[in-house]
Amino acid sequence: MYEHGAELWESAEPNASLHLLMQERPDVFAGRIIDLGCGEGRDSLYLLSQGHDVVSVDVSHSALSRARERAAAANLDASGFMERDIIYLRGFEEGGFDLAMNMGCLHMLVDEEQRARHISRVHEILRPGGHFVVDHCASEWGKGFFSIPDYDDIAEDLVPGRVISRRIRVEDGEKNIGLEVLPYAERSGDALTEEISRHGFRLVSSTHTDTEAFGSSTMLLFAKPGA
């Protein structure tokens, strides 16, 4: 994607879902935060600019490089951007975080064992009383995405492994390139709640969201009991 001239895959602005949660529950952002699957850092950079203590992890070296460049350009501390697999989250101590955010990354894990391992590790690295927020595709993956403006015309082609035309942002505007559809998972709010609750989390709130980033999604806020 970057070789085609893309400045960023995502918008430079933080997710609308993040803004919503910060307005409704500013208290959960007090303390140490980990952004799981941070990508190019859209949410992490915003939180850093607001003075929050954030560690940001992603498996993509290229995306992290962009995030660090953007942090440096904004005079923000880039040392918290780390290359880690969110499934295992190696190197993080138990109870080390107050908030874990998975904004649109969990729905890119389709293997049930990997999803379970990730959720279990999140539970381990959160302190008792900490929170876990998940924004996950509910249905019609791709609908509303900036990169798929013609969703209704190509919905039947959104099959993992197929190459479809995706819109990207470049320096002088926009262009379309062919990209392979990656595996993705869809979950109803109830199914996602059941899945995550099995690992010891307690549901705090559930909100349906429809954003440019994730389309039709469910944002769930969980707490780790025991504070």
Automatic annotation (TrEMBL):
<feature type="domain" description="Methyltransferase">
    <location>
        <begin position="33"/>
        <end position="130"/>
    </location>
</feature>
<protein>
    <submittedName>
        <fullName>Class I SAM-dependent methyltransferase</fullName>
    </submittedName>
</protein>
<dbReference type="Pfam" id="PF13649">
    <property type="entry name" value="Methyltransf_25"/>
</dbReference>
<keyword id="KW-0949">S-adenosyl-L-methionine</keyword>
<dbReference type="InterPro" id="IPR041698">
    <property type="entry name" value="Methyltransf_25"/>
</dbReference>
<keyword id="KW-0489">Methyltransferase</keyword>
<keyword id="KW-0808">Transferase</keyword>
<dbReference type="InterPro" id="IPR029063">
    <property type="entry name" value="SAM-dependent_MTases_sf"/>
</dbReference>
<dbReference type="GO" id="GO:0008168">
    <property type="term" value="F:methyltransferase activity"/>
</dbReference>
<dbReference type="GO" id="GO:0032259">
    <property type="term" value="P:methylation"/>
</dbReference>
